[in-house]
Specification:
2 copies of one chain form a homodimer. With 179 residues, chain A is mostly helical. In chain A, 69% of the residues lie in helices and 7% in strands. Chain A is built from 8 helices and 2 strands. Chain A has helices spanning 7-17, 22-33, 41-53, 72-83, 94-100, 102-105, 107-137, 142-174, and strands spanning 57-62, 65-70. Chain A has a two-stranded antiparallel sheet with strand order 1-2. In chain A, helix 1 (7-17) crosses helix 4 (72-83). Chain A is elongated, with a radius of gyration of 21 Å. In chain A, 37% of the residues are buried. The mean pLDDT of chain A is 94. Chains A and B meet through helix 1, helix 4, helix 5, helix 6 and helix 7 of A and helix 1, helix 4, helix 5, helix 6 and helix 7 of B. Chain A binds a DNA duplex (28 and 28 nucleotides) through helix 2 and helix 3.
DNA sequence: GGAGTCATGTAAGTTGTTACATGATTCT
DNA sequence: AGAATCATGTAACAACTTACATGACTCC
């Protein structure tokens, strides 16, 4: 990809909330940022090892596995990474690509595509409702405010998808069945 | 990435609109789907060569370069690819990742991030206005309807970003300057 | 004649996914 | 006892980006 190593940022960020195991890093990201981010184990463990070697995190044996904690150098590294200008990945939206060539696919199949997308937005909205409740239950803090900002972004995005999908379904109904 | 080869779909789709050069494939995608898709030359030319070898496109020498046209087999392949279930790429939204750890970055830097994002949405909206006018100027067809659907998706998305960004900026104003 | 655009490709590098492999706890 | 979850890693692989290299044509 020849793109910036963004996993460092995600892992360091997760550990900035609290020390945890590699497994917990993944679960934490999944639960709270699932809408916007994902990490695989195949990426997390090597990253953790690299960060440990670089003195950015320390490993402490505990229970069945290990708990990783941010060092001062690690926190500095996190701040440095956060401050670097974002290099957004080139867009790749499979749904839009398919829909744009919808005349080859036909309205019926396109309807299915849009309905699936709509359904996943509904599901996302339900997940965000839970996430919002969880975050709001935390004791007030700066981090809470930032977390709510991302939840809100998810909500705005999901509602936009709903509105668009309903509009799109209405348009598709007007289209003839043959391509 | 170990993910599906989506470039075939994009290239075949572009050629389904009209025969064109590899260069024009990239420019076409850029202009009309730039919001949602991108292809690099390093990906387009090898793909074109592969599709030619597979009998999905034919190359005709013309002017300074070549013009590639879809064969019947190519059109069938395109329909096949379009019909396959979409395997959405894992989400990776750098802005949300950064914002979620905003307490480490501080409100001022976060403001910049959000403002940049807002500005790019404004720019996207302007681009979409042009795209909409261009598509609406075409003679009415199924393809036109589908193209308008994707333009509309862009508009809904961009407006959602604007609404969220304004909300987020108001929240950030309330936050203390220290992290 | 120089700049910009049109045009086609190759090579290197890396991020990140998927699949495999293994085992300890905990719950039912 | 078996299933699910917690936990840690490795290896193979590929999709894709970036940078490099080259050249024709057109416009000023």
């Amino acid at each position: 990809m020849a793109r910036e190593r963004q996993t460092d940022l995600a892992v360091l960020g997760a550990l900035s909330i609290a020390p945890m195991s590699g497994y917990a890093v993944r679960e934490g990201i999944r639960e709270v940022l699932g809408q916007f981010w994902s990490e695989s184990f195949g990426q997390i463990y090597p990253t953790l090892a690299r960060l440990e070697a670089g003195g950015h995190v320390v490993r402490r044996s505990e229970g069945r596995g290990s708990v990783f904690a941010l060092t001062e150098a690690g926190r500095a590294h996190l701040r440095d990474l956060l401050g670097r200008p974002e290099t957004p990945a080139p867009p790749r939206n499979g749904l839009m690509l398919r829909l744009f060539f919808g005349h080859e696919l036909g309205p019926t199949a396109c309807r299915v595509l849009v309905e699936e997308h709509r359904a996943s937005a509904v599901q996302a909205l339900a997940g965000l409702e839970v996430a919002r409740a969880e975050v709001e239950a935390e004791r007030p803090s700066d981090h809470q405010a930032y977390a709510l900002l991302t939840v809100s972004a998810g909500e705005h995005g999901a509602r936009a998808i709903l509105a668009w999908a309903d509009e799109a379904l209405a348009v598709l109904d007007q289209l003839p069945a043959s391509s």
